[in-house]
């Protein structure tokens, strides 16, 4: 599984960080950082994060 966040859309509201903290986090500059190839076990949390994102910036690519 791969994920991609369109950082041009992201407004760092961090809903994804609350939904899937093992995948998404904010760095010291309050910029979003994320694991682009997370474990499959994180899928439910990532789907929740994608739903929660207010600007729909999270894209999932299941393979
Ligand atoms: S929820 Fe969306 S806008 Fe907020 S930090 Fe995550 S990707 Fe960015």
TrEMBL record:
<dbReference type="Pfam" id="PF13459">
    <property type="entry name" value="Fer4_15"/>
</dbReference>
<dbReference type="InterPro" id="IPR051269">
    <property type="entry name" value="Fe-S_cluster_ET"/>
</dbReference>
<comment type="function">
    <text>Ferredoxins are iron-sulfur proteins that transfer electrons in a wide variety of metabolic reactions.</text>
</comment>
<keyword id="KW-0249">Electron transport</keyword>
<keyword id="KW-0479">Metal-binding</keyword>
<keyword id="KW-0813">Transport</keyword>
<dbReference type="InterPro" id="IPR001080">
    <property type="entry name" value="3Fe4S_ferredoxin"/>
</dbReference>
<keyword id="KW-0408">Iron</keyword>
<protein>
    <recommendedName>
        <fullName>Ferredoxin</fullName>
    </recommendedName>
</protein>
<keyword id="KW-0003">3Fe-4S</keyword>
<keyword id="KW-0411">Iron-sulfur</keyword>
